[in-house]
Structure prediction request, 932 residues.
Amino acid sequence: MSLRLKEVTKQYPEFNMALSFFVEQGKLLTLLGPSGCGKTTTLHLIAGFISPDSGDIRIGSKSIMARAPHERNIGVVFQDYALFPNLNVFGNIAFGLRMHGWERKKIEQRVTELLELIRLSGYESRSVTNLSGGEQQRIALARALAPRPRLLLLDEPLSALDAKLRKELRSEIRRIQQEVRLTTVYVTHDQEEALVLSDSIAVMNRGRIEQTGSPYDIYNEPQTLFVAGFVGMSNKIHGRIVRAAGPGPAEPVFEVLTPEGKFTVRCRKKHASGSEVTLVFRPEKCTIDQNGGSANSISGKITTYEYIGENMIVGVQTKHGGYTAKLSSTNDIRSFNRLGASVRIFIPPEHIRLLPADLRSAE
Amino acid sequence: MVCGEERKNMQNRKRTTGTLPVLVFPLLFIGVFFFFPLISILREGLTDESGRFTVKQVLSIITDIYYLRIILFTVEQALLSTIASILLGLPGAYLLAGYEFRGKSIIKAITTVPFVLPSIIVVLGFVIFFGNSGILNKFLQTAFHLNEPPLKILYSMKAIILAHTFYNFPICIRLVSAVWSRINPNIERAARSLGAKGFTLFRTAILPQILPGILASAALIFIFCFTSFAVILVLGGGPRFTTIEVEIYRLAKVSVDFNRASALALWEALFTVIFMFVYIKLQHRVSFAEKVELRFEHPRLSSILRSAYGPAVILYLALVFSLIIAPMLAAVHYSFLEKSSRASQFSYTLGWYKLIFTNARERAIAVSYGAVIKNSLFFGFMTVLFSLPVGTAISYLTSRKKIPFGGFLESIAMLPLGISTIMLGLGYIRMNQTFEITGKWYAIACAHTVIAYPFVIRSTSAVFRKISPSIIKAASSLGANRWKTFWRIELPMIKSGIIAGATFAFAISIGEINATLMLYSPKLTTLPIAIYRLISSYNYFAACALGTVLMAICFLVFFIIDRMGFEIS
Prediction:
């Protein structure tokens, strides 16, 4: 079943939520955003724990607005798992089945099947309070999946676990979700998790969706400064377009004047000549060398460097601002681990994105 | 938008109308059976015969040397008892907090005994063990061939302090060791690495961390000793060893001078409110430390036993063990003895227990032994029946629902914890002017309920808080409606709290003597009162038999609460 939120609104003292999005049958959409941006509220709206001020929520073609939470058949996995401490593993997973009036035989079958799916066979009679965090998390997932829900909602399901287990379980969740082909909404503030897991990502900020797209698009084609700033590291320069003509119609070439010099940018989006823009580029797309040049480059001094094994992140300071570059060649790493060295960062025209200038801070 | 607003309003309205009936019953009960009696005392103490307001009676108390001496004595004995309890308890707290040993959980459990053991049992055990013809004296007389009992401590300050210490030092062990065991050993290591050692190390790195715990337990013990009644009534006595509580009881029941009794009660209330305030302030500092919950590895107890301190530790453990257990064992032992009238030799018998099943009765008490036990059980069940709804309703409102003034409601509801039970009884007697209730079973049942329901609030709100909102949401997302969620998830989760609350209430009722003594009529004699009357008429054997029955009930209760996994304090 697909999920559609149509102009769903809800007023809060901090912000007004206004949401529209669509998740295709069997796909996993991640709501990604900082804490307090309304991700969990969105899940609770879908599950029916809170009701919106206006708008419509549909599963398939039917609106579910009139239904109480227990009539929606939506599986939910909570951040704190919310396992029933008075029931054992079997009782927890079987709870939804009993509520839906399954026969005892079928319940037993289904629980066994689910324990196999989450690779915890034989755990039936264990008490849930004595399980490890990772096991509890998987039981919570199995419990949500048991009554064959039409939709699965996961609210930061991995945030209470340590880094190694988190990586293990996120691929486990992805595997299960694809095996069951279940439409899923996943909430997280961890961008790496979002990029790895999702069919599509909706980046949220202050109750609104800033951009929806594939993980590739979200990372490589951010549409707003907030998205560029929230997903991955990025450098920004303010500038003004001085020439907006290009040879190819597919990828017009712009010339942008910035405090750091003139930049040539190849960018698909249309911008008018004279308009104020922000140039955004990723640290790993930069190259670095010693002698100063002019086109598409920034000259400054190295103020920080962090060696992290496969690469090194260099901070370069100019009169107008600070920039970072990620160096991955062994040669570069050897040559530029010197504080105070004068260097030049070069950014290829195709790796610069132009976003409408916004005075609002992206951080 | 308008539609949404309206829905929100409707939800709000529904929420308030839902809580209102839940709120009315407990408030009505507390109003009638707790605040009204207190107001009656206030009125009695602050008006003269013609009903005009006056502070003359209240002032006459502190200008009268007789009452001043009583107040001073009350403070003095409480202070000495507190110091003795803390001194005796601290080594135990250290051992319990710092070392691992087999049977640690049993020792921990024993330290909860004072919280469930009725005071009259303490008195009984004390008389049997330390009395002039008690076991200790008998033993010493035989061992050293003495004609006179060597220890004459009954009916003296020593007796009062010793009994209070026995009763209260486990509180110090329990509270201080809880604080002590949470101390991060790295703090001590850090202090060592920075050059601290010996007493400086203790003073700078450890003492500041356990001091709030020591002070809080001291404050609690002080309050208990300040308002202690049965111990003073039996072991003290006479104008020299009378405390405020005993004097109020004497004024109300013997002199029938309610004006004086009320005026004195007002002073006591003032004192206890101040002490309670201090205790709560200190407790907040302790619970602040409670948030960091870490478990640390501890050395085994054998490591200190083998050290130079070994003998001292063993001596201490033996002393503590005998102080807690010996008087109780002595009382149990005594209940199986009888003295043939001619020779003063003891022989074993089950006779005292057989009496329970016959209609026999002692001159000192108005009804048969069986009826006494029946009375106690009846009040116990009535107290459970009344205090469960009152306590559960309040804890539900204050910990699950977001109601306005929730915190205020909770502190109002917990007030009975800070009011002496003699004073409550006095209030009921004064209420008699309006409702005829003294000597009626429901007066005693309601008084017990007022004393017990704060414990129901405690044990149930602990479990109510454990139910996170997402658990309720999880149940409903799995298809359970409100009723099924309550029945299948919430109720099983709070069940342990309700059982623990009920057992607490039962234990409190069955051991209560203060308010009962103020309100009972001979036909309503309960176990503690019967024991008191039997001690007064020197029938120790029968007293011990009934005491053993009471102890058995209390240990059963204690066992149930412990199995429920609840902290008794």
User: Anything to note?
Assistant: The radius of gyration of chain A is 25 Å.
